[in-house]
């Protein structure tokens, strides 16, 4: 059951959608041959909500598979898991010939036994087209997969284009609630600012520099350093030439506040080391004023002292413990957390970046 809530003054509207555990689609060939295809699906719990129940993905996948396998000719998987989890699932359910997955942002096709796990590129840059044949006599499946780039050569579907247009209007309306003139040019980038997924989750980039410097700027540079998880940066592209507020919203669509956190040097070093080892994932940290030189973590070019108290600008997502499990307000080495008011610049990281761009 998926529940969503809409608050309008004193009225609460509850929307409830019932989602089946499995799905069956029946296909009929030109000669009248029928085949039933079953689908199962599980999703990673990377951003859990209080109104959603979460169970073990492997237990649920196995239960769903057993519930459907005798009702269909073949079962496929639709997942949003890490590739490690997808491979484990494929080994656990070897009769599923293909798992079509998500989560990672680069395309892949990985054989697992007689099956395979396939993922296209994020942000609709590519799609996988799978042509599947099933022999009812031998019960064998053959799959021919091709990766297709999504570009201007593909004619827009009218229904899809109408939906996109509708949401573009909603987007611009919501942006105007934060920025009065979202089309205003706020910066001209002569050098491309790199916010592509692979670099932003693996190395320090100039776009990461801009965002973390803006986080420090939002607190008048009265912090020791600034940290944001690479997974918060979603545009998967470079920004060059004229940049406006809409571009910043494309970079940071989730928004969120910038928190000012006091914590021990010991914890700060652990956080930085965890982020470094998480290279290739969304937990990799883009940093300002924090570096590692000859094996020693430094802040403002001075070695971090375990017992010293540091003031750090964090994206609020980081302090929820989703990416770095031990980084939350429950940790005893987190000594104080300042949450900005709605009228303050750090209240929305996007607004901070916009104002920082304007001052460059």
Question: Could you please describe the fold and organization of this structure?
Answer:
Strand 5, helix 2 and strand 6 form a beta-alpha-beta unit. This protein is of the alpha+beta class and 360 residues long. It has eight helices and 20 strands. A six-stranded mixed sheet has the order 3-4-5-6-8-7, with helices on one face. The protein is 25% helix and 35% strand.
Can you give me a brief rundown of this structure?
By secondary structure, this protein is α+β, with helices and mostly antiparallel strands. It is 25% helix and 35% strand.
Key words describing this protein structure:
six-stranded mixed β-sheet; globular; 20 strands; alpha+beta; 360 residues
Biggest β-sheet: strands ordered side by side in the sheet: 3-4-5-6-8-7
Q: What distance separates the N and C termini?
A: 48 Å
Q: Residue share in helices?
A: 10-25%
Find the structural class using helix and strand composition. Answer: alpha+beta
